[in-house]
Design goal:
With 265 residues, this protein is an alpha+beta fold. It has helices spanning 3-6, 84-87, 90-106, 114-129, 134-148, 181-184, 195-206, 219-237, 243-260, and strands at 7-20, 24-31, 35-41, 60-67, 72-81, 169-172, 177-179, 191-193. The mean pLDDT is 92. The protein has two domains: 3-82, OB fold (Dihydrolipoamide Acetyltransferase, E2P) (Beta Barrel), CATH 2.40.50.140; 85-260, Up-down Bundle (de novo design (two linked rop proteins)), CATH 1.20.1440.120. Helices cover 41% and strands 22% of the residues.
Amino acid sequence: MDESDRLVNSEAFVITQMDYGEADRLYTIFTRSRGKVRAFARGVRKSKSRKAGHLQPLSLINLMLAKGQSAWVITQADTVEPYETIKNDLHKTANAFYIFELVNRFAPEDEAVFPLFNLVKETMSRINGEDDLFMVNKYFELKLLKITGYMPNLSTCIQCGEAILPQDQYFSAAQGGILCPRCGARHPDARKISMLALKYLRFIQRSSYHELGKAHLSQGVKDEMNSIMLYYLTYINEKAFNTPFFIHQLEANDSNKGKNNEPGK
């Protein structure tokens, strides 16, 4: 086995962790150089362990890994960027965990995906530094789909190939994109999508991130885009996601607090 196959020094993010045995932990880690891997940290739960403080979710870390007989072992860990603003804000924390839930579902095992790792780093910096996270997440979702080969067709009808006209359409997860009103009516799985929601999904799909500031969306359109994207992502994974529901609950609580604080209430 080549030395580069046995030893890895890489930037990484912790995705999940699970206690193992009396003092160890098993981590799922997204690394720049090897993609998603599972690795043990020996003795990390002991009070004297130096690695434990660095092997934290939602931090950019630098890891040294060694290949054991059957699994990777973490030999050293150092924090590069702790993203303290994210960790001190529940909304930012929830949105960051959503990013890593997506990475865990889409990233292949033991295969470097440099564009995806760079996208995750950029997205964590945006969550850390920005207040409105809607576009941050929608941009991540669509770029993730592009990188992993699941980008939906939003330009022509998947069924008949006709160009999409400026009117309400249908979206089919099973077909992988937009259906015109005539074709969509014949697919019971297809969901209606408004002209505005489709317009903004196409805008995000073809734009760089810095151009997204031009978009001004109503809450109704945001809700529709969230629903369509979650429908598609869930269909691809054949399994529901956990964090979107928590994010929705946080936003609903904030909305209720705002109403209760209105003058006269």
